[in-house]
Design brief:
The complex is a heterodimer.
Chain A (H helix, E strand, L loop, with lengths): L13 E13 L4 H5 L6 E13 L3 E5 L6 H8 L7 E6 L2 E2 L5 H7 L3 E4 L3 H4 L6 H12 L7 H11 L5 H4 L9 H13 L5 E5 L7 H18 L2 E6 L2 H5 L4 E6 L2 E7 H6 L4 H9 L41 H4 L5 E4 L2 E3 L9
Parallel strand pairs in A: 3-8, 3-9, 6-7, 7-8
Antiparallel strand pairs in A: 1-2, 1-4, 4-5, 9-10, 10-12, 11-12
Helix pairs in contact in A: 5-6, 6-8, 8-9
Chain B lengths: L4 E14 L2 E14 L3 E5 L6 H7 L8 E10 L2 E2 L5 H7 L4 E4 L3 H4 L6 H12 L4 H15 L15 H14 L4 E5 L7 H18 L2 E6 L2 H7 L2 E6 L2 E7 H6 L4 H8 L40 H5 L4 E5 L2 E4 L19
Parallel strand pairs in B: 3-8, 3-9, 6-7, 7-8
Antiparallel strand pairs in B: 1-2, 1-4, 4-5, 9-10, 10-12, 11-12
The chains are: A alpha/beta, B alpha/beta.
Chain lengths: 342, 335
């Protein structure tokens, strides 16, 4: 099923354009099943997603676990090959690149993951960890490596850099480790950063520092972010636009203030209402949808949210899958009855 | 200790023996848990909140041990109890819910067997009676009663966490210690679990100690809140008072650095300098002084005491405590 292509922005240019993206993972089947060629089931992790990321913006993808947000991120930077659909990076179709061309393009797309301890090699000191990407992408600038590393450590707030150069990951704190990971991602001078829950592991009092650092580096290095998070409160502080995912589908996309201020999809409304607010005077009173997110192996027909939706009208919602459509300026929603909330 | 106090912790210290020396994870902490309240215990990783939670049941083994203190539960000092007597208390009078229900439930045991075993360990009861009670509880907790024969992996995270709560309810526990019970849950499931906690408190007269790093969760359900920092109790008070007028500079910074989804809130967060200290070698005096914007010279020399600043709002900070060597006048908090 095709979806409406994303609206072209009036100004600027899209760094990433994703059209009809799908990723189905086959479910491991036993030998006997294969012998009898029984039907193979798939986990439809991402099932037809289209969006664009503008140059210089922070585009957020939010949703619950199993919504397909991380898989979408990995597809965008081609760590996974799509089952169907297309990713254009700076107008280049990633599917058409040779391995060597892809390898060169990787310099321009880097990743920050959730757990810095798992992202860093425990047996590599900071300087080595940061030199490694330079060796791969800038083999002819050996003499400059040390200076580039020192400069980058300063930029991420690890100063004096000389103190950190020979430290191993276990010798520094969690917040400092995530700064090393950020430095390593930026050292190749990328254009796009995929940040997958980058602050989820950090201590509460350290999170705001890391968010701030990412904002500041984004300005300084002219970066574009794909920011994946389950935490809508965090997204508010960094994202310019946001897409809400549910069971492999984008249900709502738009400017962050627009989506938060005028959520049009009943799922987005529920998600926003469920976020605990750090103010005892604003306790939630609205009811929440029944049940939990269903399995992506055999998702509900029609609109995937219909079994839990408070405004679902059957059989329309269980028969026909809603398409993303523009209902307010710069704000798309995939719901047959979103007009109710206009 | 008054009659409406269910659990009273007095001057508790817990030590961990490690290769790099003894770590005092909880130092001289006192805390009262009132009957029928939800008390939120918040702090960052390593602040001692889980260590304190475990100490309430004297669950420490291995490298950890209670170095000093009294644990008054329902009028009895648990520190004087034998291991066998403690076993009668754990599970029956004090229930526990941990972060990851998958590791708290036996993966090769049906949940009914787990519940039935728990009930029958503590009370003489037939299998049929235990089953009937479990089914009633499941219905109450919003799980279809036929799911009682499932294995833990067949349930969702939210259901498994309800099973854990049902264990505490099955034995009519007076106190439930819930350590990060919603941290592994998605936000909608989390919100519904918090609703459930509130309902159960009303219905069963439960007292709940909710240990969490999530300030939003505390604001959502707690009646009172206790804030820990680096093994010390920094501040204790009614949830409205602490959120409205935090007294400890750490609480003040923490509340301002937590993202708030409300669009009317500011777009930038307070940036607290530094990181929580390593307790192998904690800062001298008040452990927050190296990060504190209001630190005075005395703060690095002496540790303050947890004492009332106004009514029942306690704070552990030199700003509000008198001392002859203090360099600045004491801040008076109006009631």
């Amino acid at each position: 099923m095709s979806e409406t292509p994303p609206r072209q922005p009036e100004d600027g240019h899209n760094l990433v354009e994703v059209t009809g993206l799908k990723k189905w993972f086959p479910i491991q089947s036993g030998f006997l099943d294969r012998l009898l060629s029984r039907r193979v089931d798939y986990v439809k992790a991402v099932d037809g997603v289209s969006f664009a990321i503008r140059k210089g913006e922070v585009f957020g993808l939010a949703g619950e676990s199993g919504s397909g947000k991380s898989t979408t991120g990995r597809l965008v930077i081609h760590l996974e090959t799509p089952t169907e659909g297309k990713v254009l990076f700076d107008d280049v179709d990633l599917e058409e690149l040779s391995d060597e061309e892809m390898r060169q393009l990787r310099r321009r797309m880097q990743v920050i993951y959730q757990d810095p301890m798992a992202s860093l090699n425990p047996r590599m000191a900071v300087e080595e960890a940061l030199t490694h990407p330079l060796q791969i992408h800038y083999p002819h600038r050996k003499d400059e490596y040390h200076d580039i590393v020192v400069e980058m450590l300063d930029k991420v707030g690890l100063s004096p850099a000389s103190y950190y150069l020979d430290k191993y990951p276990h010798q520094i704190s969690g917040g400092q480790r995530q700064r090393v990971v950020i430095a390593r991602a930026l050292i190749t001078r990328p254009d796009l950063i995929l940040a997958d829950e980058p602050i989820a592991m950090a201590d509460v009092s350290v999170r705001s520092l890391l968010l701030d650092l990412m904002k500041q580096l984004k300005r300084e290095f002219d970066l574009t972010f794909l920011f994946i998070t389950h935490d809508l409160a965090t997204a508010k502080y960094i994202c310019d636009r946001i897409g809400i995912m549910y069971l492999g589908k984008l249900v709502e996309v738009g400017e962050l203030r627009e989506v938060y201020g005028h959520a049009l999809h009943p799922y987005t409304q529920a998600l926003l209402a469920a976020v605990p607010v750090p103010d005892p005077k604003e306790r939630r009173t609205v009811p929440l949808p029944e049940g939990e997110i269903p399995s992506a192996i055999n998702p509900p027909s029609g609109c995937r949210f219909h079994p839990r939706c408070p405004i679902a009208r059957l059989p329309h919602c269980s028969d026909e899958e809603p398409e993303l459509r523009v209902l307010r300026p710069g704000h798309q929603v995939a719901c047959h009855y979103a007009e109710d909330f206009l | 200790m008054t009659d409406d106090t269910l659990y009273s912790v007095r001057n508790l210290s817990v030590d961990y023996t490690t290769r790099s020396g003894t770590v005092r994870a909880v130092e001289n902490v006192s805390l009262d848990i009132k009957r029928g309240e939800i008390l939120g215990l918040v702090g960052e990783s390593g602040c001692g909140k889980s260590t304190l939670g475990k100490a309430l049941m004297r669950l420490h083994t291995g490298p950890a041990h209670i170095a000093a203190g009294e644990l008054w539960f329902d009028g009895r000092d648990l520190m004087t109890y034998s291991e066998e007597e403690m076993r009668q208390i754990r599970g029956a009078e004090i229930g526990m819910v941990f972060q990851d229900p998958m590791t708290s439930l036996n993966p090769v045991q049906r949940v009914i067997d787990h519940i039935s075993e728990t009930i029958r360990t503590h009370e003489p009861s037939s299998e049929g009676m235990a089953r009937q009670r479990a089914e009633e509880l499941f219905e109450r907790l919003g799980i279809r009663s036929e799911r009682i024969d499932d294995y833990p992996h067949q349930m969702s995270g939210g259901m498994r966490q309800r099973v854990m709560i049902s264990l505490a309810l099955a034995l009519h526990a007076k106190l439930v210690v819930a350590d990060e019970p919603t941290t592994s849950l998605d936000v909608i499931v989390e919100a519904k679990f918090l609703d459930l906690l509130r309902e159960l408190r009303e219905e069963f007269g439960l007292t709940i100690l909710l240990i969490t790093h999530n300030i939003g969760v505390v604001a959502e359900v707690a009646d009172r809140v206790a804030v820990m920092y680096a093994g010390h109790m920094a501040e204790v008070g009614n949830v409205e008072d602490v959120f409205d007028r935090p007294l400890h500079p750490y609480t003040q910074g923490l509340l301002q650095s937590v993202p708030n989804i409300s669009l009317t809130e500011a777009d930038s967060l307070y940036r607290m300098g530094g990181e929580p200290p390593n307790l192998v070698n904690p800062p001298s005096g008040c452990r927050f002084h190296p990060r504190c914007p209001s630190a005075m010279p005395i703060c690095s020399r002496l540790a303050p005491h947890l004492q009332p600043a106004v009514d029942e709002h306690l704070v552990h900070c030199w700003l509000y405590e008198d001392h002859p060597e203090k360099e600045m006048p004491t801040v008076k908090v109006e009631g």
